[in-house]
Design goal:
Layout (H helix, E strand, L loop, with lengths): L1 H28 L13 H10 L6 H13 L14 H37 L1 H16 L2 H15 L13 H31 L2 H8 L4 H13 L1 H15 L3 H6 L5 H10 L3 H29 L7
Helix pairs in contact: 1-13, 4-5, 4-7, 4-10, 4-13, 5-7, 6-7, 7-9, 7-10, 8-9, 10-13, 12-13
């Protein structure tokens, strides 16, 4: 398994290089530049800035210069946030998204997995409740849910703050985690239910029932691990999406996460910032897919890694 993981990481290098190249080209093709503004900039000042950031060089030279920076682990300086590097901005924003996204996915798994498994096992009214929860979570977008829970818990009941980071204090995390977790709860419930329904029809489950095993032994000893294989495949990209932040959550709760920096960088043609977030996202996708493959092999013995 170690050799497999290493080979996948080595094979990911061309993929990341293609992502970097495509993002670099698209940013340079887009109209405008990082120093375009409504107020005209003196020509000598503009030339000095472009020389400082190597923007006066040819595109191939700029590309090679960026790859050299990236090889040293340097994502470059920000053109919009002066005197600050992209590494510093991402290091500042990433803990916000890690806390909120990680807790939201944890809550989704803690609620969705038992609910989906119980719905598949028991059926009846439990299945209907699980179906209603899933449908509601999928149908109600985050930009509707977030203001509603702020109105209820922050404005009406005044139990929790309506926004802000508060240094990561738990009371500031509750509402954004709830808002982000609701759609994930819906998807986790549906995928878990479908996985359990498929697993419960397998011959080895019928054989376990025929041997008189208890429901707990059948669910936890035989059905749980293979039933979670589809869920693991979903959680790979879901983890990346949650960690890199939701622009709706960040805007609604006044959080400076990676999503906010990415949008501001795109509007202001901050090439380095947009490229830095893109590289981070691509690297996380590669690592998440690798983790999914390894976890699937651990959960289901029928999966073999080559």
């Amino acid at each position: 398994m170690g050799r497999y993981a290493l080979s996948r990481l080595v094979a990911a290098v061309p993929t990341l290089l293609a992502i970097i190249t495509l993002a670099f080209a698209m940013l340079r093709i887009a109209p405008g530049g990082p120093f375009d503004s409504e107020r005209a900039m003196p020509a000598d000042v503009r030339a000095a800035l472009e020389s400082h950031y190597h923007l006066d060089e040819s595109l191939p030279a700029q590309y090679l210069h960026y790859l050299g920076q990236l090889a040293r682990g340097d994502l470059g300086p920000s053109y919009y946030y002066r005197d600050r590097g992209v590494n510093e901005l991402i290091a500042e924003a990433l803990p916000v998204d890690l806390a909120i996204g990680g807790l939201a996915l944890l809550l989704a798994c803690l609620v969705g997995i038992p609910l989906g498994a119980l719905a598949a096992w028991r059926g009846g009214w439990v299945d209907r409740v699980a179906g209603f929860v899933s449908l509601a979570g999928i149908s109600m977008p985050v930009y509707v849910v977030a203001p509603l829970i702020i109105l209820l818990f922050a404005v009406s009941l005044q139990w929790l703050p309506a926004g802000g980071w508060g240094g990561g204090a738990p009371r500031y995390l509750v509402l954004p985690v709830m808002a982000m977790a609701l759609p994930y709860i819906a998807y986790v419930t549906r995928i878990t239910r479908a996985g359990f329904l498929d697993t419960l029809q397998q011959p080895y489950i019928r054989a376990a029932r025929a041997r008189g095993l208890s429901p707990g032994a059948i669910v936890f000893g035989h059905a749980l691990r293979p039933s979670l294989v589809p869920l693991v495949a979903f959680l790979g990209p879901a983890v990346v999406g949650a960690i890199t932040g939701s622009i709706v959550i960040e805007s609604t709760f006044g959080l400076d996460g990676i999503g906010q920096f990415f949008v501001r960088g795109a509007f202001n043609r901050d090439y380095s910032l947009v490229m830095g977030v893109t590289v981070l996202y691509g690297a996380l996708i590669v690592l998440a897919n690798l983790a999914v493959d390894l976890l699937q092999a651990l959960l289901d013995p029928r999966v073999r890694l080559r």
